[in-house]
Amino acid sequence: MSDTSNERSSGRITMVDLARLAGVSVPTVSRALRNLDSVLPETRTRIHALAAEHGFVANAAAQALRGRAARKTAIVFDFQSSGPGSTSPDAFIFELLGDVAHALTIRDFEVTLCPRENSVERYERQLTEIGASGAIFLGQGGQHEMLQALAARFPIIVWGAVLPEALYCAVGSDNFKGGQLVGEELKGRKRTSILLLGNPQTEQVRLRFEGFRASYGVGQHRMIETLPVGFSYEEAYRAVLNRIKDTPKRLDGIFAATDTLAMAAIRAVREIDLVVPDDVAVVGYNDIPQSQAFDPPLTTIREDDRRAGSLLVEKLMQIRDGVRASSVRLDVTLVRRAT
């Protein structure tokens, strides 16, 4: 017996299943079943026929895509750090989370926090079961291809790298330009041996490091090495400390993918009696509030993130309403302080 026959006989066919059978997104199924004009008549007819054929009965999750319950949005991000491949939230992400939640709340939307999943199907099922009518992903988390597929089935918006090949809408800082600014700064300060601290498998970090290399350049008197770490402070601290102790080659500059990693690096550098910035210059990224209060105050890249939370919500609302939303790349500036 086929999977669809099993679903029909058990009455368990869901809106996700119906969308897959029809070759459309879940919101399109929802709008078609409500006979909204935003869905082409032939598409509405096909979806109604499939619903009847497979005995579709609207369950609580499907009902949540309609009426008052449709005002629920999932915010998806990693809750825990798990080593070098980690995309666990940095302090900046917690700030952004607060901004997004505030922007949703003032629009009378309910917020549900969700962990990352490992497949498109699991994402669909999770989001449908909680009754979310859209999802905001805080970071690509190394799941670019998965998000590509999910965007065709469910309304999503992503905070992260704006990629030219992306099928999903994204809001994020100009990561490549940020890296360029750091490269120019450290080159201007005559630093010749640079450590890039962060995980280049994540899209935002990869672009930051690519921008750095493009402006800093390489040559006989300029060396760059990458130390892949997740977003954990302790992991970064131990990694930098071990690198300095175990490798005789001297470092005189560190570009950390986040401010949290930069602070961890400074702690490690100080423990072996090196002085920041005289011996080792350190530059972070994000300009979180702690950066200015840190001792010494951290040189970093500031993102134009004041609009990020409201932009993410605004773009998601457009996508939910069937409008094609364009991605937004926010400007960045270098903030020179004492490191």
TrEMBL record:
Q: Any idea which UniProt keywords this protein has? A: DNA-binding, Transcription, Transcription regulation
Cite the HTH lacI-type domain residue spans from the record: 13-67
* UniProt-listed SUPFAM superfamilies: lambda repressor-like DNA-binding domains, Periplasmic binding protein-like I
Q: Which Gene3D superfamilies match?
A: 3.40.50.2300, lambda repressor-like DNA-binding domains
Determine if Transcription is one of this entry's keywords: yes
Gene Ontology molecular function, alphabetical: DNA binding
At the top level, the lineage of the source is Bacteria
Name of the protein in its database record: LacI family DNA-binding transcriptional regulator
